[in-house]
Amino acid sequence: MKTFVFGLIVGVILVPVCGYFYFGSGAVPVATSAPPMPFEMMLAHRALDARISKEMPASVPIQADDTNLTAGAQVYRHHCAMCHGLPGMPEGGFSKGMFPHPPKLTEGTGVTDDEPGETYWKVANGIRLTGMPSFKDSLSDTEMWQVSLMAAHADKLPQAAKDVLSAPMFGGPPPGAPGAQGMKMPGMGAPGMKSPGTGAQGMGAPPKQ
Fold first, then answer.
1. For the segment 26-46, what is each residue's pLDDT rounded down to a tens digit?
2. How far is CA 73 from CA 9, 36, 123, 162, in A?
3. Where are the domains of the chain?
4. Average pLDDT in the 59-76 region?
5. Whole-angstrom distance, CA of residue 142 vs CA of residue 140
6. Most buried by CB count within 10 Å: which residue of 6, 59, 178, 188?
7. How would you write 129-154 as a 3-class SS string?
């Protein structure tokens, strides 16, 4: 019994000490190009899933109609496409250098198999240490729900929403398409944002990591 207690005490002390020196040794993979640590992805997903399950909204306050889906496409184009891509467009260098790699939300499954409330939680709160920012201070609640619904219905969008997403990354929607406002760069004139100098409190540069 004494041996067991002694071993338990040593383990309780030794494990944190070893962990402290390991994280301070410079051997921990912290670069986005480095492979993940053992169990890193599993533990991160487990913690994220548990938090989202606890806090995500149980109901959606707006309808997934053509108007909201098209508005969501405009929000997506100007706030999300830089990392998550546009349909039929090659992946940009920005997303290639990120870890974890951001999923493409307009092709394949994306998040169409997730509840809109789960996507809304991610849009509103962001995900720490992933490059996914929180948009609750730069988008309205309605805009966050619109883009969440758009992502959830990315495989069955109305034509108006598809038109908004079909333009090249660094140009506005096709002439005459909903949301065509002469935009030149993602973010300029986008929902929730104004041009510099107007006193807007929209998104600026990504937060420093």
1. 888 888 888 888 888 899 999
2. 57, 33, 14, 8
3. 62-166
4. 97
5. 5
6. 178
7. CCCECCCCCCCCHHHHHHHHHHHHCC
Number of residues written out for the chain: 209
CATH fold of the domain at 62-166: Cytochrome Bc1 Complex; Chain D, domain 2 (1.10.760)
Which residues are CB-neighbours of 94 under 8 A, at least 6 positions away? 82, 83
Q: What share of the chain has pLDDT > 70, as a percent?
A: 81
Q: Is 120 exposed, middle or buried (0-12, 13-18, 19+ CB in 10 A)?
A: buried
Our measurement of the distance from residue 193's CA atom to the centroid of its chain's CA atoms, rounded to an integer in Å, reads: 18
CB-count burial class (<10 Å; 0-12, 13-18, 19+) for 57: middle
Amino acid at 186: P
The phi, psi pair for 127, rounded to 5°, reads -130, 115
Digit-coded pLDDT (tens) for 159-182 = 999 999 998 776 554 444 454 443
- 0.70 exceeded by pTM: yes
Q: How far is CA 117 from CA 39, 71, 124, 137, in A?
A: 27, 18, 10, 18
Burial of residue 83, with CB atoms counted within 10 A of its CB: 0-12 exposed, 13-18 middle, 19 or more buried: buried
Return the axis-axis angle of helices 141-152 and 66-79, rounded to nearest 10°.
Answer: 100
Write the DSSP assignment of 97-121 as a string of letters. T-SSPPPPSSSSSTTTTS-HHHHHH
Distances (CA, A) of 200 to 128, 147, 170: 25, 21, 22
